[in-house]
Amino acid sequence: MARTLAYIHERRIIVADIASRNFLLDADLSIKFCDFTEYTELPLDTCMETADYGGYSVQTDIGQLGAVMYEVVVGEKCNFDIFKDVPLELSRGVWPRREDLPSTKGVWLGSIIEKCWTEGAFHNAHDLWKELESVRVENEPVEVLWSPKKLLSRINQFTARYRWSSSLRSTTTLMVMFSAIAVYAWIRRHK
């Protein structure tokens, strides 16, 4: 997802609406972005690291992607809303206050998610992608390494607590994909 976001930003586009409901899986189980209705296309000579369109920027896209990662890993909704505390008469969003976002303590990828929510911690989506690529599964909480049976049990417990909305189906699917990738990586490293 971060690699795709880096590619989108290279094309001088700010997505502005990155949420779990805007990701799909294709037949090969590759994750795809969808719903670019809120996007902003900037001139080709724009410096994306400093570009800002009504409060939306490369940084807010990264912050929103951090919220999607949080939803996938934890299984709970997370809002990274730049208009939460902004009066209606203002049309410019502001970076969310940290206390308005959930804790990442003890969460798999928590330090990376926290950096996504810290304005400027990642210079761009490419830096986020590189940091995600460097994650070592053996340094993560034991919950990440659950057996497939325990993982399915956990997913069933999670889905039983909530009604199945399209957003929840997307989040659950992404959660399963992240978990499967983590288990696969762990198995490959321990052969």
Automatic annotation (TrEMBL):
Q: Which Pfam families does the record match to this protein? A: PK_Tyr_Ser-Thr
Question: In this entry, which stretches build a coiled coil?
Answer: none
Superkingdom, according to UniProt? Eukaryota
Give all residue intervals belonging to the Protein kinase domain.
1-152
Q: Which InterPro entries match?
A: Kinase-like_dom_sf, Prot_kinase_dom, Ser-Thr/Tyr_kinase_cat_dom
Query: Which GO terms fall under molecular function for this chain's record?
Result: ATP binding; protein kinase activity
- What is the name attached to this protein's record? STYKc
Taxonomic source organism: Aspergillus sclerotialis
